[in-house]
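input
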Amino acid sequence: MTSIKEQAAISRLLSFLQEWDNAGKVTRSHILDKFIETNQGKTAPELEQEFSQGASLFLVRLTTSLRITYVTDSCLEKLLRSIGIFLSAVSSNRYLIEFLEVGGVLTLLEILGLEKIKEEAKKESVKLLQVIANSGRTYKELICESYGVRSIAEFLAKSKAEETQEEVQVLLDSLVHGNPKYQNQVYKGLIALLPCESPKAQQLSLQTLRTAQSIVGTTHPSIVDCVLKVLGTMHLEVQYEAIELIKDLVGYDVRQALLKGLVALLIPSVKETSKLQAKILSDPSVLQLTPSLPMFLQQAAAAKAIGVLARNDMSIAEELLYLRVVRGLMAAMGNMDHSNSQRLASLTLECFVQMFPLVAEYVRKGMGEELYQLFLTAFRRTSWRPTKSMLPKPCASTAAPTAWTLSMARMIRLRWPTLHTSRRRMWNQRSNSSCGKPGRPRLRGREAWQQEGVWGQAQSHSTWLQGGRRGLGTPEGQRESRWL
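output
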C-alpha cells in the first residue's frame, strides 16, 4: 500500500497533467515558463522526484504537442527548451530513447527547413540535435541516416543569424568526429557549402573542413575548384580561412592541381576579361565596379596564397618556379585595373627574388634596370624574414659555400644598408640623450652600442648568416666574408 505522501504526490501529478490537457495556448505558455524556470539544470532523478516518478508522462505530452503544433510555431521555442531539459539532464538516456521512438529527429530536421518558423526556434532545434549527436556514435548515425547532413547544410547556407550558424558549425563538427560510417558524407556536405552566398557560412565551412580533412585523410577531386573559387570573395575573413585550408591541402594528393590552379589565376583568360570590359564600358559606375571584379579578387588572393606557401616551404617554391609562377606574378603586377593585385604580386615576387638568384636576373631583364632598382628599393623597406626551414645549414668546414648560401648572403647585403642606417640613427639618439646627466659620460662608437645592447643584435645578425656558429667577427667569419 502507498503512503499518504505518495498518494498526495500522485494526486498533484494527475492534477498537473489534467491542467495541461485542458489548457489553451496562453495557459500552456505559462506552464512551460514555470517549468523552465524551476527545472533548468536538474538531473533525471531530480526530475522524477519532481513529477513523482512520472516525468515521462509529461515528456510524452511535450513531444506530442511538438509534432502537432510545430508548423504553426505556437510556443515552439518554449516547447523545444522544455524538451531540452529532459534530454540534457544527467542519466537521461531513457528520455532520449523515448523522444527518438516517436520520430523526434525527423521533426527537428523538418523544423530547420520551414521558412515560417522563427530563427530562435530553429536555434533551439539545432541545440537539441547537438545533445542527440553528443550522446554517442549510434545517434550520430541516426541523424545522418535521416538525411540530416543535407538538411543541416542547407540551413547553414540560408540562415541569417551568425549565432545560429555557429551552433550549426558545432553540430557539423560533432557529426564528423567519431562517425566513421558517415564522415565522408559530412565532408562532402561541407564542400558543397563553399559556393553558397553567405560569407559567414563559407567561413565556418572552411574552418570545419580543415578538421574534417585531417579526419577523412583523403581528398575529394572537387575541393580544388571550390576552394579556388572562394578566393574571389570580398570578405577577408573568408579569404584567410581559404588560404589556411590551402596550406593544409598541399600535403595531400591534390598538391599539383592546387598549385597549377593558383598560378593559372594570376593571368585571367582573355575571354573573361573581354566580357567584363564590355559591361564596364557601358556602365556609368565604372569606378565602383572595377575593384570588385571576382577575377581580379581571385588574382590578388592567388598571389597572396602563393607568397604564403613559398615562404613556408622551399620545395613548394621550387615547384612553383617550374609552373612559371614568375611570369604570372609579373603579369599581375601590370594589372592597372586592380591595385591590390599589383601590391600582393610584388610582395610575392620579392620573396622569389630574395630566395633564388636566377629569378632576380630574370626579373631584372624583364623589368629593365631602372624599374628593377626601384623594385629593390621598395622591398628593402619590407620586414619579411626567411623562416627557420629556409635558413642555411651550419657550415662544418671552410669549403666553398653552396648556391643557397650565396643567395642568402646577397639578400643580407641588399638589406643591410637600410638596417644599418636606421640603427645608426637610434644609436645617435640614445647616446645624445645621455649627455648632461651626472655620473653618466657620453659614449661613442662601439661602447655605446654595447651598453644599449644593439651591438649584440648586429652580431646575432651576422651569426644567423653563418648558420648560428660563426660570426663575421671571428677569423673563420672574416675568411668567409669574401663570399659576400
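quick obs: The two ends are 101 Å apart (CA to CA).
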